[in-house]
Amino acid sequence: MPENLLQGKVGIITGALDENSIAWKTALKAKEQGAKFVLTNAPIAMRMGAINELAEECNTIVIPADATSVEDIEKLYDEAKEFLGGNFDFLLHSIGMSPNIRKGRSYGDLNYDWAMKSYDVSAISFHKMMQVAEKKDIMNEWASIVGLSYIAAQRVFPFYTDMADAKALLESIARGYGYRFGKAKKVRVNTISQSPTKTTAGSGIGGFDSFFTFAESLSPLGNASAESCADYIITMFSDLTRMVTMQNLFHDGGYSFTGISEEMMDKLSDK
Ligand code: NAI
Fold it and tell me: Which InterPro entries match (predicted)?
């Protein structure tokens, strides 16, 4: 394993809920690679308490912030800057939630108040995090900002309902803000489109298990784990990827470019 890829870098990691979270694995790897960072999550997620154990393991603090609240984000950045002793080199947006999915509403029966909540939590919060960062001038030059997406932004996965639209918006925001932040401060912005992953957010989606197995048999490398996603995020935070920006990067074991696998054909044939 390469060492100290993030030595001297400081940042913020959102979305570590429990040890399965992509953000949780990212925090452990960021620490391993020499980064200093603050953890944050929605105040309601604090109740579970697990994030405090992670903070202890990473010698850091947790600052509660609802990512849909500009006021919370401002407070988060101010307190994080004080703790970290300077501006940020990386931000991870690892946040997603759809009340419609949670409550089993189909795409033809969306509750629009809930849909607005899905878009706000899962996509517009990404814009809010960047807009507040720009206004506070709190990113260092060549800083890296990453959000997490899913291929339902490009192709139809019926069970993903309003989250598909949220992810399309998230990816669009990465392009729009990537251009703006690149020009203003050489800050890069990308989304990573991850395989289905067994986390709280992932498993909450109807039919997740059968879809997980389907993606596993279609992808030549199999599904990408949360841990390997964390590895990819670390490379995106490192100086090795300085010229990559405004991209949606598939991290899915080859799923996105596979039409059908021999394994799937065998399963579907009557022989
Ligand atoms: P997770 O459930 O561990 O993480 C989601 C996080 O969002 C939780 O920590 C939750 O507390 C946080 N969150 C929800 N509302 C919030 C708010 N208002 N303010 C701040 N934080 C809030 O699940 P996972 O899978 O690690 O999710 C991370 C990201 O990866 C999400 O964007 C998700 O959509 C994305 N992703 C997940 C896939 C999967 O199959 N698990 C596949 C592709 C992308």
Answer: Enoyl-ACP_Rdtase_NADH, NAD(P)-bd_dom_sf, SDR_fam
Q: Token pair 């953890």 is at which residue?
A: 39
pLDDT in tens, 215-270: 999 999 999 999 999 999 999 999 999 999 999 999 999 999 999 999 889 988 86
* Length of the chain in terms of residues written: 271
Closest atom of ligand 1 relative to the 95 alpha carbon:
7
| Residue 140 vs residues 89, 109, 145, 187, 239: alpha-carbon distances, Å | 6, 44, 11, 8, 13
For residue range 167-208, what is the model confidence (pLDDT) as tens digits? 999 999 999 999 999 999 999 999 999 999 999 888 888 888
Question: For 220, phi and psi rounded to 5 degrees?
Answer: -55, -30
Q: Do 93 and 147 contact (CB within 8 A), yes or no?
A: yes
150 is catalytic: yes
What's the 15 CA to ligand 1 centre distance in angstroms?
6
Report how far Cα 83 is from the mean position of its chain's Cα atoms. 23
Catalytic option among 119, 160, 177, 232? 160
d(CA 213, CA 224): 12
The helix or strand, by DSSP H or E, that contains position 251, with its residue range, turns out to be strand 248-251
| pTM metric for this prediction | 0.98
Distance from first CA to last CA of the chain, Å, rounded? 45
β-partners of residue 10 are 36
Q: Which of 169, 151, 172, 156 is nearest to 253 (CA)?
A: 151
CA torsion 146-152-158-163 (nearest 10°) is: 30
The protein residue with its alpha carbon nearest to ligand 1, atom 37, reads: 202
Calpha distance 81→140 (Å, rounded): 12
Instruction: Take residue 72 and report the two structure tokens written for it.
Output: 């919370």
